[in-house]
Design brief:
alpha/beta; 36% helix; elongated
Length: 387
């Protein structure tokens, strides 16, 4: 089955919604204008319940089906990024230094398209919970919505989400059972020594030497402390120290990221970085302060729900345009917090040959919005048939 005809009928409306959201990007939890626009559309569609202000600017809307049944959750993220747009599009961001560079404007639009159709037809049993979530990029908005009780409050029994994917054929779907995106941790290391004249290093305690040793030690974790078939990426992304060629500085700063799937690997990396810092502090007789922060957990798809979601995707996109063996990647996604609580599936939908995510040249492909909206809508109808 191709794109649902009724959803195709309001393609122009969806394009207008998406471009309005694109012109007016908001960050983190402060997506109040975005949420107000979404809430206005949902009221126009006639949803049965509209719950605002969850995780500050998140929304959960409820649409009742034709018969008793469970509640399925569909989630779209709504926040933008602190990037200055370079597309030059007529609908480019009107806010300097902010843009929808990850397509969350498109995700929200696809869920709105599904909402409009489902509110009109109600060809399903039970209820659908439409989750519009802030702070995916930074802040873990999904975690906050879970902590604020949306699962129990609305009786959600399974949950689904998707993300657009540049470089993938437009309107195609890719996912995988089990882990699909990595856990993400961050470390900051402050090395504190004693500065002085570069010509008299014996009178200093050089933090640069210790910092270099720490970075070298961290680079051995992947090659010498973990099984090579367990996925792991450790990247030192910042190192700052010094101000002139003849001054030994007082301090040095190191920053980086860790991406893992297995909990035991995640725990091992944190332990080894801590041990390396402690060891180098002793070796160089200075202080090393480590701030290691565990971020989003790994995003893990339920195998049964992945089978179901890919079957629905094949109805919409065709057999050849859907893969359920797409592998996993080291990026992270806070939808993981919802999948930690409920069975569900996260998918990637292709948007064609466009600029990459988080690029100032990126823009969502409006032509694929009806495909995504049709997928969301058909998920509900197939998961909870009316008769």
């Amino acid at each position: 089955m191709p794109v649902i005809n009724r959803i195709a009928d309001f393609t122009d409306d969806m394009t207008a919604w998406r471009r309005h959201l694109h012109r007016n990007p908001e960050l983190g939890f402060d997506c109040h204008g975005t949420a107000a626009f979404i809430a206005d559309r949902l009221r126009e569609f006639g949803v049965d319940e509209l719950h605002e202000g969850i995780a500050r600017s998140g929304i959960v809307a409820i649409i009742e089906g034709r018969a008793e049944g469970p509640t399925i959750g569909l989630r779209a993220d709504i926040d933008a990024l602190p990037i200055h747009e370079a597309t030059g599009a007529e609908w480019a961001s009107t806010v300097p230094g902010r843009m929808h560079a990850c397509g969350h404007d498109g995700h929200a639009t696809m869920l709105l398209g599904a909402a409009r159709y489902l509110a009109e037809t109600r060809n399903f049993a039970g209820r659908v919970a439409l989750i519009f979530q802030p702070a995916e990029e930074d802040g873990g908005g999904a975690d906050i919505m879970v902590q604020e009780g949306i699962i129990e409050r609305f009786g959600i029994t399974r949950v689904f989400a998707m993300h657009n994917n540049p470089g993938q054929a437009p309107g195609s779907f890719v996912t995988t059972p089990g882990p699909i995106m990595a856990a993400v941790d961050t470390f900051e290391i402050n090395v504190k020594g004693q500065g002085g004249h570069g010509a008299m290093p014996h009178l200093t305690v050089d933090p640069i030497v210790a910092a270099v040793a720490i970075v070298s030690g961290i680079q051995t974790i992947s090659s010498r402390n973990h099984y090579s078939l367990d996925d792991l990426a450790i990247s030192v992304t910042q190192i700052h120290a010094g101000s002139a060629e003849n001054i030994v500085p007082d301090s040095a700063y190191i920053n980086g990221t860790v991406r893992t799937f297995a909990p035991h690997v995640r725990e091992m990396v944190a332990r080894r970085i801590r041990q390396i810092c402690e060891g180098q502090a002793t070796a160089y007789d200075l202080s090393v302060d480590l701030d290691y922060v565990q971020g989003y957990p790994a995003t893990v798809n339920d195998p049964a729900q992945t089978d179901f979601a890919t079957a629905v995707a094949r109805e919409i996109a065709g057999e050849a345009a859907v893969s359920d063996q797409g592998g996993r990647e080291m990026g992270a996604e806070d939808f993981s917090y919802m999948l930690n609580e409920l069975p569900g599936c996260y998918l990637f939908m292709g948007q064609g040959d466009t600029a990459g995510l988080h690029s100032p040249d990126y823009d969502f492909n409006d032509e694929v919005a009806p495909v995504g909206a049709s997928f969301f809508a058909r998920l509900v109808e197939r998961a909870q048939p009316a008769a």
